[in-house]
Amino acid sequence: MSTTDTTATDVRFAEVATRARRNPRRRSSRRNDPRLLLFVLPAAVLYLWLVLWPTVQAVQYSLTDWDGLSVAYRNLGLANYDRLLGGDTVFGQAFGNSLKFMLAVVIGQTTLSLVLAMALQRNTRTNIALRALYFFPTVLSSVSVAFVWSFVYDPTFGLANSLLSAVGLDSWQQPWLGDQSRAIYYLAIVQIWFHAGQMMVVYIAGLQTIPADLYEAADLDGVTRWQRFRHITWPLVAPATAIVVAYTTIQSFKAFDLIFASTGGGPNHATEILSTLIYNSAFRNFEFGYAAAQSVIFVVLIALVTVLQQRAVALSARRA
Amino acid sequence: MNHVLSAGRPGRTPVSRRSFLAGLGATGAGAMLAACGGPGATATPSSSASTGGTGSGTVGGVTNFYHWRSEDRAALDSLAAGFAARYPGASVTQTIDPSEQYQSTAAQKARDGSIGDALTAFRGTQFNQFTEQDILADLSGSVAVGNYVANLITPGAQDGTQYGFPYQLIFNMPLLNTDLAEKAGVSEVPKDWDAYLGMLDALKGSGVDPIAWPGNDPANAFQIINTLAMNNGPTPEMFIGIQDGTYKATDDWWITSLTQFQQLSAYFQQNFAGASNDGVLALYSQGRAAILPTGTYQLAQVRAAGGSFPIDLAPLITTAAGTTPAFEGVFNATFILAVNAAAKNPAGARAWVEFLSEPANAAAYANATSQHVTVKDVTYENPDLQALAPWVEKKTLLAPRFQFTDADIRSAVENSLVAVVTGSSPEQAAEAAQAIIDEKRGG
Amino acid sequence: MAVAAPTLRGATRGALLAVYALIILVPMTVVLFTTFKTSAQMYASPFGLPTSPTFASFAELLDGGRLGTSLLNSVIVTGCSVVLTLLVSTLAAFGIARIHGWLGIAIFGLFAAGLAVPAQVAMIPQYVIVKQIGLDNSLLGLILINIAVTCPVAIFILTGFLKTLPTELFEAAEIDGAGPLRMYRSVALPLAAPSVAAVAIFLFVMHWNDLLYPLLFITDPAKATLPKALLDFKGEYTTNYPVLFAGVLVASAPMVLAYVFLQRYFVAGITAGATKG
Hints:
Shape of chain C: globular
Radius of gyration of chain C: 23 Å
Number of helices of chain B: 18
Mean pLDDT of chain C: 83
Order of helices and strands of chain C: HHHHHHHHHHHHH
Distance between the termini of chain C: 33 Å
Radius of gyration of chain B: 25 Å
Oligomer: heterotrimer
Low-confidence stretches of chain C: 269-277
Mean pLDDT of chain B: 86
Helix content of chain B: 40-55%
Largest interface: A-C, 97 and 105 residues
């Protein structure tokens, strides 16, 4: 990669990019039109009634020993939280696994979907066909994805070990999902395979809002591809990145179906994440109050991680 | 209906506010949804499950049967046809949820009687939950009681009241391919631990995997705990003891069990820790592994996957040579048939349960589904069921794995098995398990 | 070097795209082949070509005629849910993007919070509410819950995109005397077309594959959606994979078609962007 003139070009493109970004950020100082609230109303009514209200009820349950069914229950105050934070080894393990899984999926999936989107940005016939192919795993149900990959990872019959054996790498054969230290990452690969195509779609939408003249100006100045990416694509695709990262984070925390269907959280809780643990507390042990307390902590964690990530994305785009 | 509204809602939540929100939502969405009035898109609840049932004991109308066995749909449909023929005007519909879903929400969905006039329960946690919530009607006086082998239906009774009839009889014991055993020179199922290991050595020497263990499928992998514990436990109620604190995972008997399981793992297939149920099923069905350590509930699958060899049960006999083991094997009785206490059609539901309990109908069910049943005087036509029928008479223990009612404690104990086959010593594994049990019991 | 670089880049790009295509195609081919095998053949050779292809799976899938009903139910539920979710979400996103100051942020935060709620926790209270108003066992109930549960995602994505639109556009429209409704219709919607299409695809996938709510609310087989109907082939212990996979393929066909169709809007989006510049 050529390094001559980098600084001068960098500065000029930073300017162009900033100009393109500045306008949307400017705020009108005038008062809000009250009619705008009517636009929010239909969604708000349905959402408050069927999502937020049930959730608030669940928060109430977290202070009780309700079993999810009985009329009777006892108020426990913060005892559920005490038990969770004080001494629940499995909860701690699931918490750690959720973070590992989230990090692996967010980094892998965001990178892969951006690379694919950039490669397939132009609307040629081949690209359109490839987009449809890459998108395809998304339309499958989690149960079929879990099954397909169980045949990839199966130690005896699986595609993975068969391929290794075919190329003479028998010693690399693995128990895959049976490997307690790495199983969670092998599942992260499945999650990425499952959803990268979906995030690619968001990135394509984002890339297509970048005005073509910015690239043309850049090409006239003979910048490197990396500079183009660093100073035009990355900052201008930031709104899409924010969406992709936030959505991927939430999706990875909630990857319940896939994990439930492939390992059930095992072996020895090695792939237990918070959502599978919450399910077990609520519907295996019928400790609904305790499950509710686990999910309150879960929601706080998601919120925290999402806010941190949004900061990081905004910061890296601004630095450009 | 009111029962559901008032039930299970901790905290004081003003109903008026909720109804207000509900009203608001309905008006707001009503206009938009008017355009979507396709078939079935109306707000009127289904009437299919609630007609009939005149209450005076006459059998008629529609009876809804709620269960989790979608593989039994056809068999039950043809039994329902027989039921309709006996009681003109009566019919049975089935509502089937997948077993996971059934375990998690059946109580919630069935308790107001809107579905499941007749229903089923899993042995253990779910049955207890149903009786605690008064979901099951008393069947102690039913004529069906006498149709069952008395000691097989105890899982459907509580405090002297018979609430239901466990219908399926399952042997949760390792399945042995006797062709492979004979080829390896083993002519009878071993009766002590050394002989068992001897059989495994012989099988290994003959070039097959002695045991195909589904290490990555908890529901199937840990069936092996049943025969492992049956003669090791200090009492037949060893896991109840672990759960209530009478025994500990660090007690000698469990350390012994863990040590034996570690010995056993030397005979598992390669990379067993990651094996899925489908993978081991293929190994076993193709004759590449001699033992499938799960249970008779997989017989039908083995046959469907192409396995055509003779099968016997090979429970782990963990006792030393010369001593007589207390138990020869284990059984489980589940799929508990019951009548909903809130049934819309109680007469129909009761008649349907009694109908299924008749030997001829139970035989039809058993033969069509490849399951043994708990009903007396049943003639099995299915060759596998015939071959294994002698086990009904043997000295078997009700499968101890289902003594656990706390899933966390059960996982802790089961996971100590995983730990000893992936590097831990039995002592370490037992301590780790007991630590989690203590946390749970303290909480 | 200057000549070689683009071809090398082209080759790298081509190799990358081909490898990823294979990673998707190979497992999917296994699924496709499985549908033409019997269970025994599948277990005997999971990756092999179907040696004696059978159409029994598809025949069994169509047997009993329940597939047609559940297909129709799925089309109704998905169609209504997608259109209505898009409607309420574009309205709300437009409102949120145009409401300045803390109020806009607060409303956005309220919806965003809904993304974080684990479905298993809200499930039981939701069941009680839906049953209470008599909407269990009805497609309408499913549609309502679908809208409520997925509108946060849609609003989240759409607001993100709408906020990137230059405010001048709206100010100019305002000077021309346009009210909020006209601004929504003639400015926001056309400009947001690519992101609306992206969200539509999202919603399509989610509503079409959703199993949790049909399992929870629908007990009458005549009202089952496709994913729920397919569960008939998945028993407690025995799963009929060939038939299940045939069902999965049949069920995913409409989705792929929907995607191919909706891609046109991306094309429209890029054309609009080009002419604008």
